[in-house]
Amino acid sequence: MTKSKITMQDIADHLQISKNSVSQALSGKGGVSEETRKLITQTADELGYVYTGNRKRSSDPEDMIASTGSIALVATDFAFSLRGFFGEIYLTIEQEAQKRGKKLLIQSISQQMMKDGTLPPFAQQKEVDGILILSHLSTDYMNKLIDTGIPTVLIDHHHPDVQADAILTNNRFSAYRVVKYLHELGHTQIGFVGNTSFSPSYYERLEGFTLAHHELGITLHPKWILSDALEDQEYMEKRMRDLDEQPTAWFCVNDGLGFIVNSIIYNLGFQIPADISIVSFDNGQLSRLATPKTTTMAVDLALFGKTAIRQLFWRMDQPESPYVEILLPTTLIERDSTAVPRD
Question: Is the peptide bond before 341 cis (omega within 30 degrees of 0)?
Fold first, then answer.
C-alpha cells in the first residue's frame, strides 16, 4: 500500500487490535496504555500513516504533529466568477479560517486541469491540512483530490460516488415549501423551470416540487416541467412560446432563471403577478433587480461558510469518522412577484 492509502484500520489489522484503540492512541486521548500507545505510533510510522490536523501521536507534548497552517479552497473558474452567490461564502470562509489561525489558499481549477487530472501543487505535496471544494468539479477530479488523504469537505455539491462530507441547502424541503406557499395563495397550476442535469441541487428541487404536488393533491402537469432550462433568453422564450397555455405560477430553481422568465412573461403579454406569479431561489441580486422584485428562497451564505469551516476542522481531527451531509435551511422572502391567482 502507498503512504496516502494507509488508514487506522490498516494499523489495527496489522496489530490485531480495534480501530478505536488506534484512534485513541493517535489522537492523544486516554483509554490505552502507554506501552500500547507507543506500539501503535511506531507501527503507524513504519507503515507510513499520514497524520492530519493537529492531532498528537502520543501524550508527550514533543510528539505534536506540526500542521502546515493552511487550508485550501478550490472551485472552477465559473464558480469563482459567480461573486453574488459564492463570493460571500468565500469571504466567510476566509474570515473563519483566520480566526482559527489558518491561512487560506485559493485555487481555480480549469477544465483542462480536470481533463488531465492535474492536481494543484499543494495537493500533490500535501502542503495543506484540509481542502474545501466549492460547487461543481468533475466526480473523477474530486475523488483524485480526496485520494491524496487530505481531509476534504464539499460545499453546495455532492454525488453518490464521492465519499466526503458535504454542506448543502435543504433543496427538497425548500422546494416543497415553495409549492405549499403558492398553493396557500390559491395556485393549483404551477410550473417548474430548471436544468436538472446541471446540478444535483436542481434535481432535488424538482423532487421537492413533485412531493408537494403529491401530498397536497395537486395535479402535476408534465408540459410545465421545463427540466432542460438554460439561462439563455432566446432559448427559454422559444420553450415558453411553444406552450399552449401558461400555468398561474412558475417556480424557478435560481434567480437567474427567475429574471429571464420574468422578462419572457411580459414579452408574451402577461402581467406579474396579476396573471402569473414567480418564485425563484437564492435571494441574489437579480431577484431584487427584477420588476416586480421576485419572491425567492433565501440561502444563508455566511452560514454555508461557517458550517463548512467547522466541519472541515472536525474532519481533520476525526479522519476515520463516517461521512455526513449537513442540510442548511432556507427562508422564504415574499416580494411583489406573487399574488392570489385570478379566477
Answer: no
Residue with cell 485520494: 147
- Domain interval for residue 216: 171-299
Question: What integer pLDDT is reported at residue 196 of this predicted model?
Answer: 97
Pair 75, 159 in one domain: yes
Work out how many domains the chain is built from and give that number.
3
Q: Are 104 and 189 within one domain?
A: no
CA dist 39 and 70 (Å) reads 30
Residues 183 and 148 in one domain: no
Taking the model in full, what pTM does it have?
A: 0.79
CB-based contact 33:9 (threshold 8 Å)? no
Residues linked to residue 103 through DSSP beta bridges, in sequence order? 70
* Structure-block grid coordinates of residue 114: 480536470
SS (H, E, C) the chain: CCHHHCCHHHHHHHHCCCHHHHHHHHCCCCCCCHHHHHHHHHHHHHHCCCCCCCCECCCCHHHECCCCCEEEEEEEHHHHHCHHHHHHHHHHHHHHHHHCCCEEEEEEECHHHHHHCCCCHHHHCCCCCEEEEECCCCHHHHHHHHCCCCCEEEECCCCCCCCCEEEEECHHHHHHHHHHHHHHHCCCCEEEECECCCCHHHHHHHHHHHHHHHHHCCCCCHHHEECECCCCHHHHHHHHHCCCCCCCEEEECCHHHHHHHHHHHHHCCCCCCCCCEEEEEECCHHHHHCCCCCEEEEECHHHHHHHHHHHHHHHHHCCCCCCCEEEECEEEECCCCCCCCCC
Comparing CA positions, the residue from 75, 227, 201, 197 lying closest to residue 136 is 75
- pLDDT for res 8: 82
Find the CATH number of the domain harbouring 117. Answer: 3.40.50.2300
Partner residues linked to 133 by β-bridges = 74, 154
pLDDT above 50 (res 2): no
Give the mean model confidence (pLDDT) for residues 276-296: 96
Classify residue 312: in a domain, yes or no: no
Same domain flag for 78 and 44: no
